[in-house]
Write a structure and sequence with these properties.
- By secondary structure, this protein is mostly helical.
- Helix content is 71%, strand content 0%.
- It has 13 helices and no strands.
- Helix 10 packs across helix 12.
Length: 262
């Protein structure tokens, strides 16, 4: 089953059973739109065809042009199964953490209680996985930022809460200086993760939900690195240099979305 066969079925006023086209829909985001929400769009097209309402002459030319545009490396990457794309994004996060955090570990890391470290790092990682998984899902993603309020607010706000957790005696003696350096370090290291999210995303014009989930994943990835790398426990430093990265990514993604839709 391919795009042309699905198109011809709609022209005849037919809606193909989902079991027949399931394999094709897993690799074709455009046809997936036709079958989303119980094939709402596809049934509408089939209904119009059965009433002999002519399609615009350029309709299928535009569809074929979009299908033809699905070529190249990014098209191949975004056609991979959802679980594989998600695993590769998580692997990218782990490599960034290994390079920027573990390989360049803070000198006072061993002074922190093991339980505190495990809880903070584990919570960051779980929310990163959840946000990346929701972003890369095949489900329709036309919603706004309010679609996942707990995940969005919690993911962006979590580093601000961590900034006020008890620190070691040595780390409390630092001042707010160095916030810009940490911000730049964390943001730069998460650029490869941002590129992975963009390459694997099947939405040509990302929704606000996609923008928000990307910001959560990138902000927490940066904070995961900095939690391992930076010895400064000053709350102002942590708020400005660590926690703010998620909000900065949210602004950057939102601006890129506005530009792409202009």
């Amino acid at each position: 089953m391919d795009c042309a066969q699905i198109r011809d079925a709609f022209v005849r006023g037919e809606v193909l059973p989902i079991d027949v086209v399931r394999a094709h829909l897993e690799v074709c985001p455009h046809c997936s739109e036709l079958f989303a929400r119980d094939a709402e769009l596809g049934r509408s097209l089939a209904s119009e065809a059965s009433l002999a309402v002519p399609f615009p002459d350029a309709l299928f030319e535009q569809l074929e042009a979009r299908v033809a545009g699905e070529a190249g490396l990014r098209a191949w990457l975004r056609s991979r199964p959802t679980h594989l794309r998600g695993m590769l994004v998580v692997l990218g996060v782990l490599l960034v953490v290994l390079f920027g955090g573990i390989a360049k570990q803070r000198p006072d890391f061993a002074d922190y209680p093991t339980l505190r470290v495990a809880l903070v790092l584990g919570l960051y990682f779980v929310v990163i996985v959840l946000s990346a998984a929701k972003e890369l899902t095949l489900a329709p993603r036309r919603g706004g930022l309010a679609d996942n309020p707990a995940l969005l607010v919690g993911g962006l706000g979590l580093p601000f809460l961590v900034a006020f957790l008890p620190a070691t005696e040595a780390s409390r003696h630092f001042g707010p200086e160095g916030a810009l350096s940490c911000f730049s370090y964390g943001a730069a290291l998460t650029v490869p993760v941002a590129l992975l999210l963009w390459a694997f995303d099947r939405d040509d014009k990302p929704s606000l939900r996609t923008v928000g989930l990307s910001a959560v994943a990138l902000g927490l990835s940066a904070n995961l690195v900095l939690e391992l790398h930076c010895p400064n426990g000053n709350a102002v430093h942590l708020v400005l240099g660590h926690a703010s990265i998620g909000l900065a990514w949210l602004g950057a993604w939102f601006l890129a979305r506005r530009v792409s839709r202009a």
